[in-house]
């Protein structure tokens, strides 16, 4: 079921879903309220600008510039580390990245996996480039309602089996392309 990001965790509370997965960083606050899986990936945040803009991902360059982020995402923490930047929120990462393509924003800050997917499955790699990354890497996890640890245990077993089979690496390559190329 495709659901807006900011409705996923509340949906667990209202028993609309058994599990929520959408590049959720594992945080202490979320772990108090939800059962978390093992990490399925490590993610940093990519800082994206228009190709050929010569923009850099540093405090001086980003000062006074529009930075597009997905509303409610952890990218806000990264954007706020550049004081003086003007944070503009969008309903989804694709909208934030598109804002850079159209010149509506100077930068976008999105998870590196999301950025890699967007650039691998669109023509955006022709007009966008990754100009930097956040230093912090987050563990990405799946959440379930607190008390549903049995479901999380089953997910963890399936994830482990999937990684051992080699299918996990094949899917990463298919969906995200050569992530190293995006770095």
Key attributes of the depicted protein:
alpha+beta; four-stranded antiparallel β-sheet; 9 helices
What does this structure look like?
With 183 residues, this protein is of the alpha+beta class. It contains nine helices and nine strands. The strands form two sheets. The protein has a five-stranded mixed beta sheet. Helix 4 links the parallel strand 5 (66-70) and strand 6 (86-90). The radius of gyration is 17 Å and the shape is globular.
Low-confidence stretches: none
Radius of gyration over C-alpha positions, nearest whole angstrom: 17 Å
From N to C, what is the helix and strand string?
HEHEEEHEHEHEHEEHHH
- The dominant shape is globular
Main beta-sheet strand count, sense and barrel state: 5 strands, mixed
Please identify the structural class as seen in this structure.
alpha+beta
**Helical segment count:** 9
Distance between the termini: 31 Å
What strand order characterises the main sheet?
6-5-7-4-8
Oligomer: single chain
Strand content: 25-35%
Helix fraction bin = 40-55%
Mean pLDDT: 88
Topology:
Blueprint: H1 5-13, E1 19-25, H2 28-33, E2 34-36, E3 41-43, E4 45-50, H3 59-62, E5 66-70, H4 75-79, E6 86-90, H5 93-102, E7 107-111, H6 112-120, E8 128-133, E9 138-145, H7 149-165, H8 167-176, H9 179-182
Parallel strand pairs: 5-6, 5-7
Antiparallel strand pairs: 1-9, 2-9, 3-9, 4-7, 4-8
């Amino acid at each position: 079921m495709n659901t807006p990001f900011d409705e996923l965790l509340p949906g667990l509370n209202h028993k609309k879903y058994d599990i929520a997965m959408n590049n959720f960083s594992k945080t202490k606050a979320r772990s108090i309220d939800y059962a978390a899986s093992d990490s399925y990936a490590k993610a940093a945040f990519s800082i994206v600008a228009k190709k050929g803009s010569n923009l850099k991902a540093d405090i001086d360059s980003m000062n006074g510039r529009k930075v597009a982020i997905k509303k409610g995402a952890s990218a806000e923490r990264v954007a706020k580390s550049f004081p003086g930047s003007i944070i503009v929120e969008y309903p989804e990462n694709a909208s934030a990245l598109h804002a850079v393509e159209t010149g509506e924003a100077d930068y976008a800050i999105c998870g590196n996996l999301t950025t890699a997917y967007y650039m691998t499955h669109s023509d955006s790699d022709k007009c966008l480039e990754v100009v930097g990354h956040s230093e912090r890497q987050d563990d990405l996890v799946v959440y379930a309602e607190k008390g549903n640890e049995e479901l999380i245990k089953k997910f963890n077993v399936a994830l482990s089996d999937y990684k051992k089979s080699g299918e996990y690496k094949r899917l990463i390559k298919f969906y995200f392309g050569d992530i190293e190329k995006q770095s």
